[in-house]
Amino acid sequence: MPQSFRPSFCGFSVALPVNWRGARPGASARPTRGSAISAPSTPFCMKLPLRAVLPNFVFHQRGDAAIWIARGYDEPPFLERLMNADCLFAQGGCQIVKDQRKIRIGRITVTISGQPRTIYVKRYNAFSWRYKLFSPFLNSGAFRSLRGAAILRAAQIPSAPPVAAVENRRSGALVKSFFLSEEIAGGQTSDAFWRARLLGVNSTEGIVLRRRFLAELARLFRTLHDERIYHNDLKDANIMVRSDGDDFRFVLLDLDGVAKLKHLSRRRKIKNLAQLNRTLGRYVRRPEKLYFLKHYLGLAFKERSLRRRVVLSVMKESSAGGRSSNFASGNAETGWLSRTGLM
Hints:
Blueprint: E1 8-9, E2 12-13, H1 50-53, E3 57-62, E4 65-70, H2 76-83, H3 87-90, E5 95-99, E6 103-112, E7 115-125, H4 129-134, H5 141-154, E8 162-170, E9 173-182, E10 188-189, H6 190-198, H7 204-226, E11 229-231, E12 239-244, E13 247-252, E14 258-260, H8 266-279, H9 286-297, H10 304-320, H11 333-339
Antiparallel strand pairs: 1-2, 3-4, 4-8, 5-6, 6-7, 7-9, 8-9, 10-12, 11-14, 12-13
Helix pairs in contact: 7-9, 8-10
């Protein structure tokens, strides 16, 4: 083995010379060249060609509406409705899932090729004059979501299948945008699934199922970070679960914050782990969290100093996010870390 080689798992080097401390020597701050999908507002993001990853999408310009739509949904009646996508919220049977200042989400059923399809419509509002002022230079939330779906598809990470992205602009200024995606049939958010299907099962079978669930979830996080993919809101409600017996399949939602980076920093990895710890972690016991961490870190879990740094960093970030961490609490922190072999 060459002397300069250092094994690295999920970007965490066992010897901790680079990734655990921050900046990566020699990393370029310039984005890689690409077309069709532009990078978000950070110099470390990589561009991704939309047509290469989502070849079944086509583009239409209808008045002030720019529409990217999957070929399977590319029908004139549906396109006409997307010109003023607000009408989708007004149709009969529309279920409003969320209605906030920045976003509005509805669940509707549309007829495509004579077949009913259940989809979700997410409207991004241009909610401030400052946002409208700079919007000619920015991608809309809908387009960022479509780009996020392309990034995940390129890495073979499941997400809700995109249906369409719509931008309404006037004189270049963004007025509103919409992102449409298919419903995940039989899916539940990871917190709802854990509480309903796993939390109350105290038998040996329940322990095995919970561990299998956490192992698969850890592999999802590890794959994201190995692929240098960052999701800026990786909480339990944005991770859908479908199960087929003992098998668990995770699907990511809320894709407008997904980015492919040239270098995924330690801080962002810890932030993702803390987001999960603050949400799903409320229902997960400490030994089960260690089991998750073991599968996330892989062989690097054997490095005691690394385990300790990860746990302490997640605890600190979790507390900074407004919730106390369940890894340890109060003055018992040092004692618990010692008992679990982390110190």
